[in-house]
Amino acid sequence: MITLAVDAMGGDVGLDVTAPAAAAFLNRQPDVRLLMVGHQEQVQAALASAGAPLDRIEIVHATEVVAMDEAPQHALKNKKDSSMRIAIEQVKGGKAQAAVSAGNTGALMATARFVLKTLPHIERPAIAKFLPAQGGHLTLMLDLGANVDCSAEQLWQFAVLGSELFNALHSQKQPARVGLLNIGSEDIKGTEVVKQAFGLLKSSSLNFIGNVESNEIFSGGVDVVVADGFVGNIALKTMEGTVKFIGGAIKEELNRNWLTKLGALGALPALGGFKKRLDPRRFNGAIFLGLRGVVIKSHGGTDAVGFAYALDEAYHEAQSNSLERIAAGVAQRFATAEASDGQPQ
Questions:
Q1: Is 253's pLDDT higher than 80?
Q2: What is the pLDDT of residue 338?
Q3: Which CATH number goes with the domain that contains 65?
Q4: pLDDT (tens digit per residue) in 63-73
Q5: Cβ-count burial 67-78 (b if 16+ within 10 Å, e if not)
Q6: What does the record give under GO molecular function (predicted)?
Q7: Helices (DSSP H) in the chain: which residue ranges?
Q8: How far apart are CA 56 and CA 68, in angstroms?
Q9: Pick from 278, 298, 317, 296: nearest CA to 17
Q10: How far is CA 147 from the centre of its chain?
Q11: Domain that holds residue 194
Q12: Whether 99 contacts 111, CB under 8 Å
């Protein structure tokens, strides 16, 4: 039985989202139990209202909630009994295999890093997320905002973490294809840090396919895309904005006049499939990669459907023992590096 710890109070809405999401998730995953962390009476009432299977839920009481606009260091120092922190401590204590929160991203990262610490040899954790690509492919991209400034060695570490995670979750004939996000495919392009990272990746044992441009992220030709948090976050927000723009533009055109509305009726099956394929809720759940524990960050403004998908992400991470495989892979690559005069492998 897999156990997940849930910050029931976190996010823009809190229990109005996390409770029905927990109910829906448990109804489709019979081999999971949840530790719902939050104010006991409020959580109990919300779960009962949502019709959640209470026989597979344990409520862990927490007296505090981290606000969405709260400074990370303030939350870390002053909110030691927050639902966010106690959920992470369930992972640290071995009571849960993963923690999920829709709370303040900065506070969640700071708290997770403080409580769980990073894996050996990993200097900084990164935010990673699976994105849809052509042919039903999923592309893992990191870092998406945790580290604005990165060294070449840290970008190599992100590549190792991403490659090991992808290999753990996906069965394929070849190791994960790793690409470095850049403004061109040539190795002479990019900042000095990116060019140095290119050299480290090229000489490593990773399946490095070279630089990739942003228009290749959705091509299905790369499995792991590596960038610093500044570039990665801008790219992610641009993608989200583009999807919203396309959806709005299609809706405007279909409602332009009676003829386009009539044509829309015949296109409803295709439009429904298009909407489902690009529904951001289906890809909700970013991974804090590089920690000694699994922590999943849900979008703070998502609904119950989206939060349930974040729970799914945590479930798949726990089910695949991805953390153990990542830790073993990282240790092996660094052992090889030390045997090769410290050069990344």
A1: no
A2: 65
A3: 3.40.718.10
A4: 999 999 999 99
A5: eeebebeebbee
A6: phosphate:acyl-[acyl carrier protein] acyltransferase activity
A7: 15-28, 40-50, 72-78, 83-92, 105-116, 152-169, 192-202, 229-254, 258-266, 268-277, 304-319, 322-339
A8: 29
A9: 298
A10: 15
A11: 123-285
A12: no
